[in-house]
């Protein structure tokens, strides 16, 4: 691997020079990225080393039990809207919050294994908790200069036969990310939404605080229609949740590569 050989050569040169003229230069440690090590052999730098991804698992499970807190108006990007909503559910009562948590924690794990720093906007799925509000979810990662935000949702449409995923962006720059994520979901076998205008699986919206307040490229994925029996079967199964997480991780890697 030429890159690895070059790094090793540079490190050797640095230590030779260091022994001749003084202490080893500090950069020798700083330039070498963390690397994947298997059975003692360094294979390659991890693909997302140095990258910071915010994963937003949407609504907290307990939001419906805290109506006053959820109704509080917060900054949403030039206007104000409610702190949060309770999200949707399957006809059998499997909550969107639980679906998005299960996909998000799997996605975070995959991204961390690939070397990324990951910030989750909530750290569990509990009927006894609410929030965070959309303004907090929108601003998470701004101060740290995060590279990308992925907000995970499931939709709830009662339109006959409505099924499939769509990816929402708040501006043209993020729409390019949305197209990459759409490609990764399609490559994993997921179908574009049948019920979203345009039929291309993409949507541009300026009413979502999570996207409006993000100072990095940000997309909100509606991974399926929880009110559709076929989508619900996939969205509530651990195998389906793993497929969604794998596809999203692939989309993130494609964009950040
Ligand atoms: Zn939602």
Short key terms for the protein model shown above:
2 domains, Aminopeptidase, disordered N terminus, binds zinc ion, globular, two-stranded antiparallel ribbon, 257 residues, 6-stranded mixed beta sheet, alpha/beta
Characterise this structure:
39% of the residues lie in helices and 18% in strands. 41% of the residues are buried. Strands 6-3-7-10-8-9 form a six-stranded mixed β-sheet. The protein is α/β, with parallel strands linked by helices and 257 residues long. It has nine helices and ten strands. The two termini are 18 Å apart. The model is unreliable at 1-32 (pLDDT under 50). The chain has helices at 2-21, 27-31, 67-71, 96-113, 134-139, 172-187, 209-212, 229-235, 238-256, and strands at residues 35-38, 41-45, 52-56, 73-75, 80-82, 117-120, 148-155, 166-169, 202-204, 218-225. Strand 1 (35-38) and strand 2 (41-45) form a beta hairpin. It has two domains: 2-45; 52-256, Zn-dependent exopeptidases (Aminopeptidase), CATH 3.40.630.40. Helix 4 crosses helix 9 and helix 6 (172-187) packs across helix 9. The structure holds zinc ion. Zinc ion is lined by residues 58-59, 87, 96, 153.
């Amino acid at each position: 691997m030429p890159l690895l050989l070059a790094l090793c050569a540079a490190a050797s040169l640095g230590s030779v020079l260091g022994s001749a003229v003084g202490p080893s230069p500090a950069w020798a440690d700083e330039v070498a990225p963390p690397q994947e090590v298997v059975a003692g052999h360094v294979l390659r730098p991890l693909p997302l080393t140095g990258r910071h991804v915010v994963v937003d698992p949407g609504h907290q499970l307990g939001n419906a039990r805290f109506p006053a807190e959820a109704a509080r108006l917060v900054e949403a990007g030039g206007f104000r809207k409610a702190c949060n909503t309770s999200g949707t559910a399957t006809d059998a009562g499997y909550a969107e919050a639980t679906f998005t948590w299960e996909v998000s924690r799997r996605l975070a794990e995959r991204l961390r294994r690939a070397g990324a720093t990951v910030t989750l906007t909530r750290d569990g799925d509990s009927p006894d908790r609410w929030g965070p509000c959309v303004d907090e979810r929108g601003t998470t990662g701004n101060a740290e200069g995060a590279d990308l935000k992925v907000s995970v949702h499931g939709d709830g449409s009662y339109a006959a036969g409505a099924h499939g995923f769509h990816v929402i962006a708040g501006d043209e720059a993020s729409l390019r990310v949305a197209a990459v994520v759409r490609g990764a979901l399609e490559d994993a076998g997921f179908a574009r939404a049948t019920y979203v205008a345009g039929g291309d699986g993409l949507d541009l919206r300026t009413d979502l605080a999570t996207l409006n307040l993000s100072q990095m490229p940000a997309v909100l994925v509606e991974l399926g229609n929880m009110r559709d029996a076929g989508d619900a079967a996939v969205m509530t199964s651990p195998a389906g949740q793993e497929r969604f997480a794998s596809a999203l991780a692939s989309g993130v890697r494609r964009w950040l590569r």
